[in-house]
Amino acid sequence: MKKRKFVEGEINHTYQRTISGGNIFYEVEDYLVYYTIYSIMSVKYKVVVYGLCLMIDHIHSLCATTDRERFSRFMSHVANVFVREYNREHGRNGPLFECRFGSAIKLGLKLIRTAIAYLYNNPVERYLCKYAQEYRWNYLAYGQSSNPFSEPLILRNASTALRRAVKEVNESRMAMRHLTYAQLRRLFSPLDHKEKNQLIDHIITRYSVIRYDILTKECYDGYTNMLIAINSNAGSEYDIEELKYGRSDVEYRELYRYVHSQGYTSAGDVISLDVDVKLALYDQMRRCTSASHHQICKFLHLSPDMRVERGV
Asked: What pLDDT does 143 receive?
């Protein structure tokens, strides 16, 4: 196996996807569980984070540390803890991610800026938003605001349930504990849509470890200049092979809505369905959505060759 390139203190662009190519993130809880695990582990392993982007079927990050082994342990620990939580939540077993994540060292300001633009523009390239800062799960908007996707959180005006939720989130962060699926469901349950969005923004801000200060000062001379640069250049990545299916990821949102219309509480419930049920759902999705064969298979965690293998 080829040894990773590593330079002490320099930025690494990492890329991680699932073994089967299946989707990772279905509901808000999926994103927040991964995000809080990543944040806590970065502090424990003394990893400096410059960017994190959670796409529907893969993950990008930009980070640096002083030790190759520490870097590998950090990535492994994040994956192991998340997969344990994810499997318990979605009724699955075994590994989720490919055993070897992709990584590429970025030396020099030009390559760093290119990697930054590439990471933050991933959702733009997949037509999930028009501008990079409009996508919640690349966390770019949080470099300038603590509540970019919700109304300002004023605790004295908040419901008792929201005040309690904020207190519990703060205590979990202080204790260096990531948030769990059961915990998030309990905290979100009594909240209306407005307060749920306020709590999501609070969680992201409270757990944030992304060094926007370093990015804006050393790479762009200000946050506004960084946004202008990111939105005018999509960036590129030649060192990591990123597999893409279809022209857009918008169809995954269509599949998400379809699953909910069929009475599933969580879109992620499809992961643990029996194969025959998945195949029947596949046929319905082909008729009722514009998603491609590969996109539906990824959403259902089905092998793209499954229908051929089973003679369907």
From this structure: 95
pLDDT in tens, 65-100: 888 888 989 999 999 999 999 999 999 999 999 877
Which of 236, 240, 231, 242 has its CA nearest to residue 110? Answer: 236
pLDDT attached to residue 88: 95
DSSP assignment, residue 272? G
Amino acid 239: pLDDT: 63
CATH-assigned architecture of domain 1-244 = 2-Layer Sandwich (3.30)
Distance CA 204, CA 212 (A): 14
pTM score of the predicted model: 0.94
- Domain spans in the chain, listed from the N-terminal domain onward: 1-244, 250-309
Is the per-residue pLDDT at 272 higher than 70? Answer: yes
Give me the helices (H) in 45-180, please.
68-90, 109-120, 122-125, 160-174
Distance CA 286, CA 151 (A): 38
Name the strand (E) or helix (H) holding 11.
Answer: strand 11-17
Distance between terminal CA atoms of the chain?
38
Tell me, what DSSP letter sits at residue 2?
P
Q: Sort strands 48-54 and 58-64 into parallel, antiparallel or unpaired.
A: antiparallel
